[in-house]
């Protein structure tokens, strides 16, 4: 029988690679508590950054598109239910004479979270059509619906101060561009009966406890209202609750559904 050659096992520290060179095996590193905590913190940081990105950019884009789609759908439903459009007034009829013949409807105050209208602001974009509902709580109205009506304040077209609120950031940020309004810009509130057109007049910044902006005559609670106003409120500055930004407007006209959409919806926005 041939002579057998025994092969002595080599220690782990003296293993050779394919070229015959000796290499030293590295011992495995043991996971330390500090290392595990560090990795968990990094993971949590990434998740937090993704959440912030969702809230401030991605989610806002999606929520905003959803709000406009819901408002547009509601407008289309009302248009389909409307009677035929009445003919244009003759040249002998002046706008004032025609306006005097229009009865301005006043809606009943909506219940909390009840959708009653759609706001259009050409300055905010031609596709801007945000639903409006009763109440100004975040959970009930502002987050899931869009624009909220302050309970107890007048309704659109009614004498006094029609007051509403909406987010300036997050959840579609309906009033994100409120500071960009220019004097004379149209603020149109559409309901099933037609359109109420207001014209923007001025901006104001107040502290959160200055509730006189909601008075029948804004900032003048001792005066009885003899005009029709709109007050739009939101947070200021961006991403802060330190102040409130207030946009005031005055009522211009009501256009009944059967007369067709008002020119204020499609008029050009000056630079």
UniProtKB/TrEMBL annotation:
SUPFAM superfamilies in the cross-refs: Sortase
Biased composition (Basic residues): 19-29
CDD domains: Sortase_E
Sequence intervals crossing the membrane: 31-54
KW Transmembrane helix (keyword) present: yes
Database matches in Gene3D superfamilies: Sortase
Transmembrane found in the keyword field: yes
The entry's keywords: Hydrolase, Membrane, Transmembrane, Transmembrane helix
Matching InterPro entries: Sortase, Sortase_Class_E, Sortase_dom-sf, Sortase_E
Pfam families associated with the record: Sortase (PF04203)
Region (Disordered): 1-29, 74-99
NCBIfam families: class_E_sortase, sortase_fam
Protein name per the record: Class E sortase
Organism the protein comes from: Microbacterium aquimaris
